[in-house]
């Protein structure tokens, strides 16, 4: 849905970030079975390497996917990963 409103390069960037950092951690879990703790565990390695801007973007992208799943009736509630951002501290 969003792909129609962004450039091809930006859509590719979004997809690559999910492929690189989220999909390997989620595996073959259906969107209907994904829980907040699964998403938190998927984002933690990115947070651990200090890539906090990437964490913010990943959380935003994950939330957009989950909101879409809710709006299309696949899930009843959106498991949020926004709390990761508030607890993340930069590694200096």
| Principal-axis shape | globular
User: What radius of gyration results from the CA coordinates?
Assistant: 13 Å
Provide a count of the helices.
5
* Name of the CATH class: Mainly Alpha
Q: Compute the number of strand runs.
A: 0
Look up the CATH topology.
DNA polymerase, domain 1
What oligomeric assembly is this protein in? Answer: single chain
Q: Helical content, roughly?
A: 55-70%
CATH superfamily, called what?
A: Tyrosine recombinase, N-terminal domain
How many domains would you count in the coordinates?
1
Structural overview:
The protein contains five helices and no strands. The chain has helices at 8-21, 23-26, 36-48, 52-71, 83-87. 14% of the residues are buried. The model has no long low-confidence stretch (mean pLDDT 86). It is 61% helix and 0% strand. With 92 residues, it is mainly α. Residues 2-79 form the Phage integrase central domain. One of its GO terms (molecular function) is DNA binding.
């Amino acid at each position: 849905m969003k792909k129609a409103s962004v450039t091809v390069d930006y859509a590719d960037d979004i997809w690559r970030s999910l492929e690189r950092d989220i999909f390997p951690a989620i595996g073959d879990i259906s969107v209907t079975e994904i829980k907040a703790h699964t998403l938190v565990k998927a984002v933690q390695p990115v947070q651990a390497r200090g890539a906090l801007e990437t964490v913010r973007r990943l959380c935003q992208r994950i939330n957009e996917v989950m909101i879409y799943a809710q709006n299309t009736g696949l899930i009843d509630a959106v498991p949020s990963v926004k709390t990761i951002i508030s607890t993340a501290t930069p590694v200096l």
